[in-house]
Structures are given as structure tokens and as C-alpha cells.
Specification:
single chain; mainly alpha; two-stranded parallel sheet; 15 helices; 2 strands; transmembrane; symport; membrane; cell membrane
């Protein structure tokens, strides 16, 4: 087996090329815009397929150094925070708790599906948790954190099952969000409020003008948010709260943005706001592109029957629950359709896939400010705590 290791600089440069490809393809083909397929999916997943083909036919593994990926996510969430004001947060209070409650219910459903399919195929029922909320809602970090516990139970393939589930989940999460929103918007004849100032990126076919001041000012505010975010993260750690770093950067962005608005009585200029949304859009796109190009699809081989079967049920359940439950409970309006597009990312992928789904939808149909506050907070804070408690409950019961 030959191994080719691509260093961080080359991997980052390749991700830029792949994101360019995704943006050009989206601009060229109307069907990609119609169903709000995220731009990073096109280039990133194509790269993953090519790498898998090289592995299969040339006995060569290509490994990318993706160290820059996490920093990009921090910039993105800092930008989300800077765009939020306290009035939007207050409006999002009730929907925030409703979406959290729905997510908790779905965690139970998701684990139930995993356990049921494992039992049906004659496998250890507890292995189904690895194809449930551990790998799908929890992600790679949660999967690897729980793997030693499953190994102690004699399930040595648990990590492999979890990683394979997460890989397929990430792909499907990127693909179902846009079509779900498109269906809901068309079915219920929904419209945005006409606001073209998006939280992330710009609307399709919109011409923008950005000067040096706007770009530099946005960059400065983002860097200050990351600095403050590190202090907030350290403070939370001392209090015993271990949260993802991007949550601290989100909080820091909210504090800095509202300090300028409420204390200094100064609004961010339209040009600076535009610079902020464009930088955030690029960072999110680059993050997901790098996440997809780093997928090792051949890891799916040994567990294909179980993973393939359970993922069919998981994807179907996510779509049905989103359309018939989430959309209705969140208000059956345009904001609800955008939140619904992100719910697939919550249940099958990650916070980043949830946001990139919503970004693709708003670029097509218009802004949804409340959605971009509610979903990151649910993904980054409430759902992780609930997931850990529910997983422990299932393990004790089994």
C-alpha cells in the first residue's frame, strides 16, 4: 500500500480550487440552485470519489493534512455572532426551546432505529447506537470518545461502524436540506421578508461592491471575536463546562457586535457587514469542502450491509420528521422552512452541514436571521448535553 500525504498548504489550496468548482457549477446549472445544493458538496465530494478510485485501482492512499479546517469554523461562527443582535435573540427564545425539545425527541427515535436494525440483522443491539445519535448527531468526536466504551463491551468494530455511519450521514445531510426547504416553500407558497442582507454570503445573481475598509474592518472584528472566544472558552472550562470552541466564538461575536450597537450606539456600516458575510461564507465553504475531500469512502466496505440498511431508515426518518413535525412546530413560515433545511444537518451531519444547508437556501430565497441564531445554539450547546444523557440511558437499558 502506497501512501501519499498532502501537506496543509497544498490541501488548503486544493480546497480553494474545489470550492471554485462548486461555485461555478452552481452558477451554471439552475437545477443546483433550485434545490439549494450546497456549493462545497460538488467539489469536495468529487475529490473524495477520485481519492477512493485511486485507492481501489492503484493501491494508494491519499491523506490530506486538514489542520486549517477547524480555524475556518471558528471564523464562521464568530461571523454569525457579530451579525446577531439581542432583539433577534429574544425573538428566538421560544423557538429555541421548541427546536431543542424536538431534537431531544429525535435523538431517541434515531437510537431506536439503530438498535432495531442491528437486532433485525442479528447484531448486538447496542451496536445500533453507533449508527444512531453517537455518530450522526454526535459526529466524529463523539464517535471516537465512545469507541473505547464499546471496545470494553467486546464490540471491536464499533469505531469502524461509527465512522462509516458518520461518513454517509455527512453526505446525505448535505443533499437533503435544500430539497426539503424547496418542497416546503413551494408547497406552502412561502416567501421571505424581502431582506437581501444575508447572514452568510449573498443572494444568487446579486452584484456587490466591497472596498478595502469594509473587508479589513470585518477581518479585525472577526479576529477580536476569536481572541475573546479563547478567553470565554478558558473561563467555561474552569467552571467545568466543556463546550465546542466554536460556541465560545459565537458568544464572543454576539457580545462584541452588541457592545458596538448598544453601548457605542454605532451601527456596522453596510460595507463592513458585507465584508463580514462574505468572509463567513468563504470560511464555511472551505470548511465543508475540506471535510468532504478528507472522507475515506473505502471505510464503508466491511460494514456495508448494516450501514446501508440503517442509513436508509435514518435518512427517511429525518426527512419525514422534518417535514411533518419540525416545520409545523416551528411555525410553518419561511423561517421554519430554513430551519427545516438545517435539521437534516443536525440529525445526520454536523453543525456546519446544518448551516451550509441554510446558507444555500437563503442565497436562493432570501434572509432568515432568526434561523441562523437558533440552529447554531441548538447544535453547539443544548443538543450535545442531551445526546450524552440519552446515550447513557440507552446503554444502561441495554
Amino acid at each position: 500500500m502506497n501512501i501519499i500525504e498532502v501537506d496543509g498548504f497544498l490541501a488548503f489550496t486544493l480546497a480553494i480550487v474545489l470550492l471554485f468548482i462548486g461555485k461555478l457549477m452552481t452558477k451554471k446549472y439552475e437545477i443546483l440552485r433550485k434545490y439549494s445544493i450546497p456549493e462545497p458538496v460538488i467539489g469536495g465530494f468529487t475529490c473524495a470519489i477520485i481519492v477512493a478510485v485511486i485507492y481501489a485501482f492503484f493501491d494508494t492512499t491519499i491523506s490530506f493534512d486538514l489542520g486549517m479546517r477547524d480555524a475556518l469554523l471558528l471564523y464562521f461562527f464568530a461571523g454569525i455572532g457579530l451579525s446577531a443582535n439581542f432583539s433577534t435573540l429574544l425573538k428566538g427564545g421560544k423557538p429555541l426551546f421548541i427546536l431543542t425539545g424536538l431534537s431531544v425527541v429525535y435523538i431517541v427515535i434515531q437510537n431506536g432505529i439503530g438498535i432495531s436494525v442491528a437486532t433485525m440483522l442479528g447484531l448486538e443491539p447496542v451496536l445500533g447506537l453507533m449508527a444512531g445519535s453517537i455518530s450522526l448527531i454526535g459526529g466524529v468526536g463523539t464517535t471516537m470518545a465512545w469507541a473505547p466504551t464499546f471496545n470494553e463491551m467486546g464490540l471491536e468494530s464499533a469505531a469502524e461502524v461509527g465512522l462509516a455511519s458518520n461518513t454517509l450521514g455527512l453526505i446525505f445531510a448535505c443533499l437533503i436540506g435544500g430539497p426539503i426547504a424547496n418542497y416546503l416553500i413551494k408547497r406552502h407558497r412561502l416567501q421571505s421578508q424581502g431582506d437581501t442582507q444575508l447572514d452568510i454570503g449573498v443572494c444568487h445573481n446579486q452584484t456587490v461592491k466591497l472596498d478595502h475598509f469594509g473587508y479589513l474592518y470585518a477581518w479585525l472584528m472577526l479576529n477580536l471575536s476569536l481572541i475573546l472566544g479563547h478567553f470565554i472558552d478558558a473561563g467555561l472550562s474552569k467552571m467545568g463546562l466543556q463546550l465546542p470552541m466554536f460556541v465560545a466564538c459565537l458568544i464572543a461575536g454576539i457580545l462584541i457586535g452588541n457592545f458596538k450597537l448598544l453601548v457605542l450606539k454605532k451601527k456596522v456600516s453596510e460595507n463592513a457587514q458585507l465584508g463580514q458575510t462574505l468572509i463567513s461564507d468563504i470560511c464555511l465553504g472551505m470548511f465543508l469542502t475540506m471535510a468532504l475531500m478528507g472522507l475515506q469512502l473505502w471505510q464503508l466496505q466491511s460494514t456495508m450491509l448494516f450501514i446501508g440498511t440503517v442509513m436508509l431508515f435514518q435518512v427517511a426518518a429525518s426527512i419525514l420528521f422534518t417535514i411533518f413535525v419540525v416545520f409545523r412546530f416551528m411555525g410553518k413560515d419561511y423561517e421554519s422552512s430554513v430551519i427545516s433545511s438545517g435539521f437534516g444537518g443536525i440529525t445526520l451531519g454536523s453543525t456546519a452541514t446544518a448551516i451550509v444547508n441554510m446558507t444555500a437556501v437563503t442565497q436562493q430565497y432570501g434572509a432568515a436571521h432568526k434561523a441562523f441564531i437558533i440552529v447554531p445554539l441548538v447544535c453547539g450547546f443544548f443538543i450535545d448535553i442531551a445526546n450524552a444523557l440519552i446515550i447513557n440511558t440507552f446503554l444502561q437499558a441495554l
